[in-house]
């Protein structure tokens, strides 16, 4: 930051209008009742979650079943238990049934296996790229060596041509 930039900032901070605006903003922030405590999420991700929840809520209900409640819908879409506890959708108690835990463990194992498979595929792709790169490097090295050899041959031919040409201009030599 240059001295001129710093001076401009200090001048702006010292301005009465700027101080008044900062005070108003501070008062407005103090009036916020419900602070965001659910972490950060971009607008597009939030819109997708809302769309998913609206889709689940609008699903047709089969005979003999009740429509899903808002809590059930939120807990189905949002996977974070921390968020669900903060939002009051689920309690912090450890009264989760063994079946639910078993299901979660199974889901995590499936997810882990999928990630391992993806990792293996990526590693194979990386190995293929390395092999292609090495093959390309060897090919380029061979081409460079060929060009060097051709260049040396051309240099030799030019020397012969020059010496032959000098011999013709100096017949008495």
Structure write-up:
There is one protein chain. This protein has helices spanning 3-14, 16-30, 43-57, 70-77, 81-87, 98-169. By secondary structure, the protein is mainly alpha-helical. It is flat, with a radius of gyration of 37 Å. The termini are far apart.
Question: Keyphrases for this structure?
Answer:
single chain; 173 residues; mainly alpha; flat
Summary of the model, kept short:
The protein is mainly α.
Helix coverage percent: over 70%
Order of helices and strands: HHHHHH
Number of beta-strand segments: 0
Characterize the biggest β-sheet: none
* Model regions low in confidence, pLDDT < 50 over at least 5 residues: none
- Described by the principal axes of the CA atoms, the overall outline is flat
Structural class: mainly alpha
Beta strand %:
under 5%
The tally of helices reads 6
Q: What do the pLDDT scores average to? A: 81
Rg, Cα atoms, Å: 37 Å
First-to-last CA distance: 76 Å
Task: Describe how the helices and strands are arranged.
Elements: H1 3-14, H2 16-30, H3 43-57, H4 70-77, H5 81-87, H6 98-169
Helix pairs in contact: 3-4
């Amino acid at each position: 930051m240059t001295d001129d930039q710093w001076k401009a900032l200090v001048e702006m901070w010292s301005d009465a209008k700027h101080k008044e605006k900062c005070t108003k903003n501070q008062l407005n922030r103090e009036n916020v009742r419900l602070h965001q405590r659910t972490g950060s999420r971009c607008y597009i991700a939030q819109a997708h979650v809302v769309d998913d929840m609206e889709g689940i809520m609008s699903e047709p209900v089969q005979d003999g079943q009740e429509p899903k409640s808002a809590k059930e819908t939120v807990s189905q879409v949002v996977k974070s238990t921390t968020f669900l506890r903060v939002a009051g959708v689920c309690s912090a108690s450890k009264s989760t049934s063994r079946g639910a835990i078993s299901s979660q463990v199974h889901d995590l194992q499936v997810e882990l296996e999928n990630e391992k498979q993806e990792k293996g595929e990526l590693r194979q792709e990386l190995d293929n790229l390395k092999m292609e790169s090495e093959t390309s490097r060897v090919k380029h090295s061979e081409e460079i060596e060929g060009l060097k050899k051709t260049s040396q041959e051309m240099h030799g031919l030019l020397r012969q041509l020059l010496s032959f040409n000098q011999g013709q201009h100096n017949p008495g030599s």
